[in-house]
Amino acid sequence: MLALEVGFHSEHPQAAENDRVIAHLLARERGWRRALGREAEVGAFLGRQDSWRRVSETWPDPDLGAPDLGLEIAVRLVDYVTALEPVRRDRKQ
């Protein structure tokens, strides 16, 4: 089955740093959850990379020929950037 993923990945080489990034986002989840809804899942990267983490959603079996698919993806990605980037930036290194 084909699926499309839209969202945020924390892709530091060390799992511990990715866990800290995600913990920071989760500590402020109430604010971004309103913007992203229940579709946004927090967890391990969907793939072979064990150390990466994510806040994202999957769209199973999208119609790749749909004329508005690109626009829908772009709009949803803007939702993620708008909701998560301010929270991510306020994290103390």
Structure annotation, total helices: 3
Strand share of the residues?
A: 15-25%
| Separation of the first and last Cα atoms | 39 Å
Instruction: Tell me the structural class.
Output: alpha+beta
Main pleated-sheet profile: 3 strands, antiparallel
Number of strands: 3
Poorly predicted runs of 5 or more residues: none
Shape: globular
User: In sequence order, what are the helices and strands, one letter per element?
Assistant: EHHEEH
Structure overview:
This protein has helices at 15-27, 29-36, 69-89, and strands spanning 3-10, 41-44, 53-60. It has 93 residues and is of the alpha+beta class. The termini are far apart.
SSE arrangement:
Elements: E1 3-10, H1 15-27, H2 29-36, E2 41-44, E3 53-60, H3 69-89
Antiparallel strand pairs: 1-3, 2-3
Helix pairs in contact: 2-3
